[in-house]
Write the structure tokens for this entry.
Amino acid sequence: MELEEIRLAEREITETLIGNYRTVLKDIDADGPAQLALAKAVEMTAETRTALEGLDEEASADEAVRRLGGKVSPALLAFVKALVVQAGAWPR
């Protein structure tokens, strides 16, 4: 029981340190390339989400293409790639 309490305390400390580290990094380079890329990714994702809102599994591919202006959104491609990587199936 004591060992488990130590592990939990160490985990809590680690999570706090990671959170603090993220905050520090974000504040160090607030207008740097990483923050600009994040802002662009948020914008692209919001645009794609808005365009595809209301579609369900019964919607045609033509409707999705129409809503995306006849092009595959870069945000959609990045999202699919992230899902594939997360699933561990991306070709290496």
Observations:
- Residues 13 and 19 are 10 Å apart (CA to CA).
- Residues 2-28 form the longest helix (27 residues).
